[in-house]
Amino acid sequence: MAQDDRQLTVRTRGLSRGFDGRAVLNNIDLEIAPGEFVALLGRSGSGKSTLLRALAELDHGVPGSGTLEVPQKRAVVFQDSRLLPWARVLDNVILGLDGDDAAERGRTALAEVGLAGREKAWPTELSGGEQQRVSLARSLVREPELLLADEPFGALDALTKIRMHGLLQELCAKHRPAVLLVTHDVDEAIALADRVLVLDHGSFAVELTIDLPHPRADHVVEIAEYRRTLLEALGVEVAV
Ligand SMILES: Nc1ncnc2c1ncn2[C@@H]1O[C@H](COP(=O)(O)OP(=O)(O)OP(=O)(O)O)[C@@H](O)[C@H]1O
């Protein structure tokens, strides 16, 4: 089959973005297949969020060029859950949804993220991890073909983060959105992704397929090898 005939959820060609005359993304060709989970690593300032915002079409006014194909049915999750403080949890989840069954769908999504019974809570009554669960439910209820996540677990403690990895993995296995996860965490990328990309100086320096079944934690030898490859690509010396 010719390459361009493949069914893809994301396709960029020659995507470039820059600020103040300085190139941040340089001719990026990115393809994400339906249901594929891609993690994006890169040093601070390498352009990860710039790429994610371009895919979310949240970068109007940013100078750039290239083409971008993304589905309309997409959702974005940020490090900060961005819940509306004056709306109860269920209302946050279904805000803007049409249909008589919106509340029912919202309840189902909340149950899926482990928050059944918390529909009437205010966001401030929830822990950081619970707020991120609500944020995931708000995305899920929209049945996105593409989930864009910008360091969604970056502010969580280590244990909560591991639980959230399990939850996200479970939700993705069930709903099969294509995912682009921006993260600083090499272990998170290896735990979750089918493919890891390392962004450096505006283009992909490394592309690594994580060829392990889920759950992955027991595959310590392979994980160590992937880890070494990715840390080297990020310029971190690994002394073992
Ligand atoms: N709105 C903006 N105006 C000017 N420069 C910007 C703007 N947004 C991003 N930049 C610059 O573009 C570069 C890439 O930023 P970006 O936020 O995409 O990096 P990142 O890899 O996500 O970083 P981090 O890991 O620290 O979040 C940085 O040098 C940043 O200062």
TrEMBL record:
GO MF entry, a single one: ATP hydrolysis activity
User: Where does the sequence pass through the membrane?
Assistant: none
InterPro entries per the record?
A: AAA+_ATPase (IPR003593), ABC_transporter-like_ATP-bd (IPR003439), ABC_transporter-like_CS (IPR017871), ABC_transporter_ATP-bind (IPR050166), P-loop_NTPase (IPR027417)
User: In the UniProt record, does the keyword Nucleotide-binding occur?
Assistant: yes
**Which controlled-vocabulary keywords does the entry list?**
ATP-binding, Cell membrane, Membrane, Nucleotide-binding, Translocase, Transport
Q: What PROSITE patterns does the record point to?
A: ABC_TRANSPORTER_1, ABC_TRANSPORTER_2
* Annotated ranges, domain ABC transporter: 10-226
SMART domains the record matches: AAA
SUPFAM superfamilies, alphabetized: P-loop containing nucleoside triphosphate hydrolases
Question: Which Pfam families does the annotation name?
Answer: ABC_tran
Keyword Signal (UniProt): no
Q: Which PANTHER family match?
A: ALIPHATIC SULFONATES IMPORT ATP-BINDING PROTEIN SSUB, TAURINE IMPORT ATP-BINDING PROTEIN-RELATED
| Protein's recorded name | ABC transporter ATP-binding protein
Q: Which organism is it from?
A: Rhodococcus pyridinivorans
